[in-house]
Design brief:
Chain A has helices at 6-11, 22-39, 45-52, 56-68, 134-151, 186-194, 203-214, 272-275, 277-286, 291-313, 324-327, 330-343, 362-376; strands spanning 43-44, 72-77, 88-92, 98-103, 109-116, 121-128, 156-163, 166-167, 173-176, 181-184, 198-202, 221-226, 230-236, 239-240, 317-321, 352-355. By secondary structure, chain A is α/β, with parallel strands linked by helices. Chain A has 3 domains: 6-92, Orthogonal Bundle (Arc Repressor Mutant, subunit A), CATH 1.10.10; 98-208 and 362-376, Nucleotidyltransferase, domain 5 (2-Layer Sandwich); 216-356, ATPase, nucleotide binding domain (Nucleotidyltransferase, domain 5, 2-Layer Sandwich), CATH 3.30.420. In chain A, a hairpin with a 4-residue loop joins β9 (173-176) and β10. Chain A starts with 5 loop residues before the first helix and ends with a helix. The structure holds a DNA duplex.
Chain lengths: 379, 379
DNA sequence: GCATGTTTGTTAGTAAACCTTACGAACATT
DNA sequence: AATGTTCGTAAGGTTTACTAACAAACATGC
């Protein structure tokens, strides 16, 4: 019953005023127990009571519900080296639910997978989009989702979608130029068609969620993706920053240099004119002997764009995603150097930049994290 | 009983795992009713039920508690132009509680006041600090607070403090150089000494809360204060951004130009070297004929520092605080121009910079907003 | 060996919070 | 005057988490 949030989501369609009913408190406490067991497996009911502040009686009741839902299992008792009755250990069962994840961010290609609650991939599938856009692209997405749902071995907790473009709180794609989508109610349509909970998020936002959920990222984190363009996902206090117009993270069109190259967006000297994969490859091919210098120059520009943000938000971790042969070398080193020089202060820790360890699965894993977080309250 | 959050705060000392008990849900719903009445006075119980999704029965119960606490009053019935029984209108009573606010941000001076729940000042008091620091400064703060509490005409809901320096979640001042405070448990000591709820926040963070609560500011907002130094408070999705080391908003030490003037912080070309009040006055006095150009130059630098942040966070509102003769003119215009040029995009609204309408009371009103928000859940 | 103390998890009963159902009061309309 | 609508309240039920008490299972001390 824990995942039955449909009534609740229905009550809060627009993130408006939030009432709390007894059942909402119950769900919160169920999530809390589950989160505690994710953070530290092999806890007893008494341990959970001590950590959460709830009584052992209440914990027993909550755990019983989780066991009935097959989300938690008893895993033996402690070897008795202490006085008192041995404790029965509890652990999360990650193998009783599946999550279907879709990544729409690649050009001309849909990627999808079936994942366990821990982010292990069970099945994978792709679909060539060709030049399909608009309604045809939607049909392909829905079809791929249905195929993956059919392939799942366990009950599907929900479907997560990471898409390029701007996404509002209802999961509608406001604008995604590559797919020619405008105000497409992706979440609602998929949920109706698939009869499952569906959650849609911008690809960069999904990716930063993945860094936190599956790569031990902290609560304050920026993840920059270097692909055809440059985009970022921001996590502040564990929450994704969406911004006033759902356009947060648009670091690609931050102006670095008034006198820089014109950008299709109309401004001059946007970060993207230095840092996108096509522009980098072009510069490296044009002068192979100075390829490293081109990468370092791009890294410095990235550092210049990031430093004010890092300084203002006081965050210490930046993760870069993109082709490792481009990102993990002079580019990363130069960006790190600039950011360190410009943000160093006695009042705060050092800022670390690193390459993402999630490879090309970041968006898919982010979709998994999104579903897990909303359906189970676990992040 | 609504303000009796002491037990609750005691349960959550470090913002750790949050359990939900029935009483927590009740408090949430009481806050929701109160917030609705703040947003729109003259609502009936039935109106509240429709807006919150709670039943009329529950709303009646909640309202009865608020009336018993003298936080809400019935204010007549609707003129009957509709069928059905006329509705009894409800409104917030802002005159039954006082809030004591303290501003420690001015050099050598403590400012304080007694305020209504709506932010109307009832009493004011100041205290000259002279060169007092450390324990002497604390004693003066506690003394001023006690004096204001004694002057209050209504029960005091709590004491809010806006202080320079970094403040952690427990209200301890980690470091405030001007006052020579290090790890001073300000909130805890004042609460014990005054026997009232006390809430401490960084001055810039308090000020941005005030813009939202008392100057109709939006949920995403940056407020930049130009004084001896330059600091900012950030509001994202209605929450204050504190950062990993409680050092968010340090825009004064964002590096604008590597080759710039050395800054006491050790870096070169920090924003503060152009934009602080002392440095501005100095430049204007040095060449009075080009005073406007000095202001415009500072404004451009501010725009350069703000643009990446605004672009990344996708926020549309920036409020400037500081001496109007410096801020409200060429400086503001130049900053507006740079920010507009660098952040304009089809995907988002225009960014507006404006001078704060709160004058020198911003921090005090922020302390009021802080107490009101934590004690009553109203913002 | 056996009593004692400790820790775990459960049972029984209670208080709080919100819900559904039902009803009287007060109004406009027919 | 009868009917329908809206408002607020009353009564009773369900859910949730609490306190108190207890049995089970262990280590320790005599």
């Amino acid at each position: 019953m824990h995942q039955g949030r449909s009534t609740n989501s229905h009550r809060h369609p627009g993130g408006g005023p939030r009432t709390t009913r007894p059942e909402d408190g119950r769900r919160n406490n169920l999530s809390l127990v589950l989160q505690s067991l994710y953070d530290e497996p092999q806890l007893s009911r008494a341990d959970l009571a001590r950590r959460t502040g709830l009584t052992r009686v209440t914990i027993s009741d909550l755990v019983a519900e989780l066991i009935a839902d097959a989300l938690v299992a008893e895993t033996g008792t402690t070897a008795g080296s202490r006085p008192g009755k041995p404790a029965t250990m509890l652990s999360v069962r990650a193998d009783t639910r599946d999550i279907v994840a879709l990544d729409l961010s690649a050009p001309r290609l849909l990627t999808g997978g079936v994942y366990s609650l821990r982010g292990d991939q069970r099945h994978a599938a792709q679909r060539d989009l060709g030049t399909a856009t608009g309604e045809d692209a939607y049909a392909a997405v829905a079809d791929l989702a249905a195929q993956l749902i059919a392939a799942a071995d366990n009950p599907v907790l929900g479907v997560g979608v990471g898409t390029p473009g701007t996404v509002d709180r209802q999961g509608s794609v406001i604008a995604a130029p590559n797919l020619a989508w405008h105000n497409l109610a992706l979440q609602q349509r998929l949920a109706t068609q698939l009869d499952l909970p569906v959650h849609v998020e911008n690809d960069a936002n999904a990716a930063v969620l993945a860094e936190r959920a599956f790569a031990a990222g902290p609560d304050n984190l920026i993840r920059v993706q270097i692909s055809r363009g440059v985009g970022a996902g921001l996590l502040i206090a564990g929450s994704v920053v969406t911004g006033t117009s759902a356009a947060a993270g648009e670091i690609g069109h931050v102006v670095i240099d008034y006198a820089g190259t014109p950008c299709p967006c109309g401004k001059n000297g946007c970060l993207e004119t230095w840092l996108s994969v096509p522009s980098l490859r072009e510069r490296m091919a044009a002068d192979p002997d100075r390829a490293d210098e081109a990468l370092a120059e791009a890294g410095r520009r990235l550092g210049i764009a990031l430093s004010p943000v890092v300084g203002m938000l006081d965050l210490n971790d930046i993760v870069l995603g993109g082709p490792a042969d481009l990102v993990d070398g002079p580019l990363l080193a130069a960006a790190q150097e600039v950011v360190t020089d410009r943000t160093h202060s006695d009042f705060r820790g050092e800022v670390r930049l690193r390459l993402s360890s999630l490879g090309s699965d970041a968006v898919l894993l982010g979709a998994v994290a999104l579903v897990r977080r909303i359906q189970l309250g676990v992040s």
